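We now fix the convention by which a protein and its fold are recorded. The integers have meaning only within a learned vocabulary of local backbone shapes. A complete example follows; check for yourself that the lines match position by position.
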Amino acid sequence: MKITAARVIVCSPGRNFVTLKIETAEGIYGIGDATLNGRELAVVSYLEDHLIPCLIGRDARQIEDIWQYFYRGAYWRRGPVGMTALAAIDVALWDIKAKAAGMPLFQLLGGRSRDKVLVYGHANGKDIADTVEAVARYRELGYQAIRAQSGVPGLASTYGVSKDILFYEPADAALPSENLWSTSKYLNYVPKLFAELRQHFGDDVHLLHDVHHRLTPIEAARLGKELEPFKLFWLEDAVTAELQEGFRLIRQHTTTPLAVGEVFSSIHDCQQLISEQLIDYIRTTIVHGGGVTHLRRIAALAELYHVRTGFHGATDLSPVTMGTALHFDTWVPNFGIQEYMRHTAETDAVFPHDYQFEQGFLYCGETPGHGVDIDEQLAARYPYQRAYLPVNRLEDGTLFNW
């Protein structure tokens, strides 16, 4: 099954997406997501200038060999740009292989481990009362797991708090905007939020929270300990994870479950976290982690150590990644939960898909492949618009983690 053509499609139906389309001599094509928020064109260049010329003429069925060719053959391995580009190729090839086999991707991976995929939504508000109302709206929509974020008094903006009830897009300007941050104000406020949520909703809903890499290990340990009475499903990205052993300190002080990994691009970013059981959920995503081929290895390692998957699923991942992730979630034995941030109507129109939401779960379809396509004519109506994620500063002006 010879690869005859491959091209990159860049569009912005409400936000920027990068999509790779690979075509074969048999007329079967596959698509993969190559979106890297705020660095989209770097991935476009890597694909067009370096990978696609080496891809033409290869056998699309040889997924493992092609993956190794681009990973080992690059010499300069890993990193978000390279692994995102490689993921786009890998997902497109799995899409082709499943279409050629006439089966949905989850069947090609080994079949169902579950009938439906538990997802969580994002409730947020300018203050605690506003967030309580947002959680109530998500409950009305059927969500059984909800991430809760709230504005913090004294801070003009806070990560995870959006202007829209259902849609959150942090890449908000042509040049990076600047936010201010106070760890002390945040730490004093968050336990009050979850005390209020449990009082309103009881224990029948799973509650999650994202710190977004803004604490030191001992600060994260304090927060995890203070949140224990409220039984969080997980505390996400409590610290930056370059220092993997830093999670040991958090583990020593709290039983609140820990999740991390959305910015990881390789199994080497999480090997110690998993093998020492320092986390409970691994969040590495298919699009930034080298595709289905590499995520299978991460999930297999995690299974040995009782770590479950909890894939990143924000709107900066196109429906192509969401659809592929759902097939992976349906198959993988050590599934935990799937993040589900709804795309806009414009995005859904550009990327028609067969997955569906119902009462807190997503269901992947039975269409051969990963079940997501791209309307290229419609995509052409939405040209690329440069957009950056914000940067963060402490109140004294020190640049900090966003």
Q: What stands out?
A: The chain has a mean pLDDT of 96.
